[in-house]
Amino acid sequence: MAPMGIRLSPLGIAVFCLLGVGVIYHLYAGVLSSRIASFRQKRTVDLRDLLALSMEAAVQGGREVKRIREDNTLEEKSKGKTKEGASEKLTLGDLNSHRKMFYLIKNTYPYIQVNSEEHANAEGEATVWTRIIPEEILGKISGVKEVPAERITVWIDPLDATQEYTENLQKYVTTMVCVAVDGDPVIGVIHKPFTGYTAWGFVGEGSNVAPRASYNTNFPKVIVSRSHSGKVKSFVQVAFGNNTEIIPAGGAGYKVLALLDPTDEEQETADIYIHVTYIKKWDICAGDAILRSLGGQMTTLKGEQIDYSGTEGNKGGLLASIKTDHKALVKRLPPWEESKQ
């Protein structure tokens, strides 16, 4: 006799058991999925670790850049035209550096967003970070700096100044990594493959570079891109006078370092960095973070902060300075419209 006087046939008993198993399965699946969701929500990344990893990625990419240049095995080709009409170069140095940098970061933190200038079709590298933190970081940054993984975007430039790289103008070439949190640049790494020097900055925590003692903003030296120095010349002269010294240079990373205390004899120095055309965020994010870590600024030509989330392009041009009245510099700039891009 079944409970409450209900009689069940063998088929009914089987159905009842199956229903019971189904209920238990769905309850278990619900608990498991909620636990997985909770785990994902709690995934965090220590920014101090991510700084050390970024430095290692830039160095590993830089080794490939240097090796391929010295072996003269560039395998140069064109990706197309820039918005200014110049040929956009691609070399084996770009691609090999991308693989080293991108996969080192993704293999270590597979759940963070990593944006790279290049997109290699070949299989990825199997490398994983050793988790060794350099003493220079431990000495300046104490304690854990954890941030939820979903708030982080990493921008990497496997080879900045590819055009100059093909011309063997080595001083302009860098590899760069930037870590943005909620769109704000927080960690910047700029590595010079041919000298081995690595500059880094962590906003609010420290840096291994420093600003110069003084800057001249009345008659500034302005560093600009050598690929379109003619276009920016009139813009700069309207702002600062016809006798303004304009320094054409390659590579956004190199131009940011020109605003700081020079680290080698080949590094030129400038008071202001100006760019008046479209530029990608992997070109400028690392420099922006380093400048911010030292109290400097990098904004659009209208003085707006650059958001390092979302799309890859910055259409607003840029003005970079340090130890100066940045807002006053913005006011001296002539009218500028994005429609000119």
From TrEMBL:
<keyword id="KW-0472">Membrane</keyword>
<protein>
    <recommendedName>
        <fullName>inositol-phosphate phosphatase</fullName>
        <ecNumber>3.1.3.25</ecNumber>
    </recommendedName>
</protein>
<dbReference type="GO" id="GO:0005794">
    <property type="term" value="C:Golgi apparatus"/>
</dbReference>
<dbReference type="GO" id="GO:0052834">
    <property type="term" value="F:inositol monophosphate phosphatase activity"/>
</dbReference>
<dbReference type="InterPro" id="IPR000760">
    <property type="entry name" value="Inositol_monophosphatase-like"/>
</dbReference>
<keyword id="KW-1133">Transmembrane helix</keyword>
<comment type="similarity">
    <text>Belongs to the inositol monophosphatase superfamily.</text>
</comment>
<dbReference type="GO" id="GO:0046872">
    <property type="term" value="F:metal ion binding"/>
</dbReference>
<keyword id="KW-0812">Transmembrane</keyword>
<feature type="binding site">
    <location>
        <position position="159"/>
    </location>
    <ligand>
        <name>Mg(2+)</name>
    </ligand>
</feature>
<dbReference type="InterPro" id="IPR020550">
    <property type="entry name" value="Inositol_monophosphatase_CS"/>
</dbReference>
<feature type="binding site">
    <location>
        <position position="283"/>
    </location>
    <ligand>
        <name>Mg(2+)</name>
    </ligand>
</feature>
<keyword id="KW-0479">Metal-binding</keyword>
<feature type="binding site">
    <location>
        <position position="117"/>
    </location>
    <ligand>
        <name>Mg(2+)</name>
    </ligand>
</feature>
<dbReference type="InterPro" id="IPR050725">
    <property type="entry name" value="CysQ/Inositol_MonoPase"/>
</dbReference>
<feature type="binding site">
    <location>
        <position position="160"/>
    </location>
    <ligand>
        <name>Mg(2+)</name>
    </ligand>
</feature>
<dbReference type="GO" id="GO:0016020">
    <property type="term" value="C:membrane"/>
</dbReference>
<dbReference type="GO" id="GO:0008254">
    <property type="term" value="F:3'-nucleotidase activity"/>
</dbReference>
<feature type="binding site">
    <location>
        <position position="157"/>
    </location>
    <ligand>
        <name>Mg(2+)</name>
    </ligand>
</feature>
<dbReference type="Pfam" id="PF00459">
    <property type="entry name" value="Inositol_P"/>
</dbReference>
<keyword id="KW-0378">Hydrolase</keyword>
<dbReference type="GO" id="GO:0046854">
    <property type="term" value="P:phosphatidylinositol phosphate biosynthetic process"/>
</dbReference>
<comment type="pathway">
    <text>Polyol metabolism; myo-inositol biosynthesis; myo-inositol from D-glucose 6-phosphate: step 2/2.</text>
</comment>
<keyword id="KW-0460">Magnesium</keyword>
<feature type="transmembrane region" description="Helical">
    <location>
        <begin position="12"/>
        <end position="33"/>
    </location>
</feature>
